[in-house]
Amino acid sequence: MKILYFAWLRAKIGTGEEDLSPPAEIATVGALIAWLKTCSRGHAEAFAEGSLIRAAVNQDYAGLDHPVAAGDEVAFFPPVTGG
Amino acid sequence: MIRVQSEDFDPGAEIARLSDGRTDIGAVTSFIGLVRGGDIRAMTLEHYPGMTERQLAAIEAEACQRWPLQAVTIIHRVGRLLPGERIVLVAIASPHRAAAFEACEFIIDRLKTDAPFWKLEERHDGAHWVEAKGNDDARAQRWRK
Questions:
Q1: ipTM score here?
Q2: Contact B51/A83, CB-based, under 8 Å?
């Protein structure tokens, strides 16, 4: 699974992209976040403020209950500020 | 037409291009967003390549469903920009002005809440990620009726 981070999530985690293989029981965005929090201190800090984090699965916005599977591109980022 | 690019754009040329060679267009409107100075020395715009273009295309498609539009141009810059520099252009061509005005406002409002761009501001006390404004959400929400 390709995991992408943007803006301050990328800064806190220390990378913009990871190729990870979460355990098979990680089946939703919410479960993936809970699992990522256990990966490192940086991940735990980045995901500490859940309300400030948006997710996308395969480049479309996704809620916490959206399914994730091997081969997906999952991105995490703060609320957007373009324009 | 949707473009995400680091280089500047020429607003006059982009706006003229919308109606070049056509006689069926009655109204062209445009919005240009600039880097506002003050305490900001520079800002760096980051985006999510791929998803950005998808989201902008979806916003454009929704605008074309809601209003009778003849041409749409959305250009958004990324990278480091200085105060006074152009960030974004939205330009619309339509047979009538009401649709052109409304669609232009719709697209920039939705771009601000849906397109995955992030701004890192350089101020006198260092670099800070810009936080999303509730006001922007409220403006985008008006169009969901």
A1: 0.94
A2: no
Q: What is the pTM of this model?
A: 0.94
Q: What residues in B contact A8, CB-CB < 8 Å? A: 129
Question: What is d(CA B113, CA A78) in angstroms, rounded to the nearest whole number?
Answer: 11
Strand partners, B45: B79, B119
Tell me whether residues A82 and B117 touch, CB distance under 8 A: yes
Fold of domain B2-144: Aldehyde Oxidoreductase; domain 3 (3.90.1170)
**pLDDT tens for the 83 residues of chain A, in order:** 999 999 999 999 999 999 999 999 999 999 999 999 999 999 999 999 888 899 999 999 999 999 999 999 999 999 999 99
Domains of chain A: 23-83 (3.10.20.30)
> What are the residue boundaries of the structural domains of chain B, listed by start?
2-144
Nearest residue on chain A to B88, alpha-carbon basis: A83
Alpha-carbon distances of A81 from A75, B61, B112, B124, rounded to whole Å: 16, 21, 6, 21
Interchain CB distance below 8 Å, B118 and A78: yes
CB contact under 8 A, A6 and B118: yes
